[in-house]
Design a protein that fits this description.
By secondary structure, this protein is mostly helical. It has a domain at 45-109: Orthogonal Bundle (Arc Repressor Mutant, subunit A), CATH 1.10.10. The chain is built from 6 helices and 2 strands. The protein has helices spanning 17-38, 45-56, 61-68, 72-84, 106-130, 133-150; strands spanning 88-93, 96-104. It has a two-stranded antiparallel ribbon with strand order 1-2. α3 crosses α4 (72-84). The longest helix has 25 residues, at 106-130. The protein is elongated and about 65 Å long. The model has no long low-confidence stretch (mean pLDDT 89).
Length: 159
């Protein structure tokens, strides 16, 4: 599958935030799907759940369902599948023994790390094949800008 690439349009007018936002949204979505597909690590409820637990630590099924905007029953089914594969385990919540917290097992951590490594390696290979040194530096600079965009900003908006 070939992804159409629009040539950069240079004008004397600065791009509008709305225009850049739409371009970013579109290309980031395409990039994520392409990387997952080419690295053969497709997105799924299971991989997203493993990632959530890895980033946030042990969590209840209710917390994960709320975060993923799915029903508790659907999330429970995903957890049951992950547990049967040995990727997650349940333990009583120390703050409320009636609840259970779901955490990654060692196998879950290894599996998640392997998937992430496959995606990173595919992308690194593609960057080496398709970009110049200057373009790679531009992308590196863009990563820092994107990190600022998603960082929690306690001081409020900055310009």
């Amino acid at each position: 599958m070939s992804i159409p690439v629009k040539p950069a349009q240079h004008s004397s007018q600065a791009p509008q935030a709305e225009q850049v936002a739409e371009q970013l949204r579109s290309i980031i979505g395409t990039l994520v799907r392409k990387v997952r597909g080419e690295a053969q690590t497709p997105s799924s409820a299971q991989s997203e759940t493993l990632g959530f637990i890895d980033r946030n630590g042990p969590a209840s099924i209710s917390e994960m369902a709320a975060f993923r905007h799915v029903k508790h029953q659907s999330m429970r089914l995903v957890i049951d599948q992950l547990e049967s594969q040995g990727l997650v385990e349940r333990a009583p919540d120390p703050a409320d023994g009636r609840k259970q917290l779901i955490s990654l097992t060692d196998l879950g951590r290894v599996t998640l790390a392997q998937q992430r490594n496959q995606r990173s390696q595919w992308l690194a290979d593609r960057l080496q094949q398709k970009t110049t040194t200057a373009e790679l530096q531009t992308l590196s600079d863009a990563v820092h800008i994107l990190e600022r965009l998603v960082a929690d900003d306690e001081a409020g908006p900055s310009r």
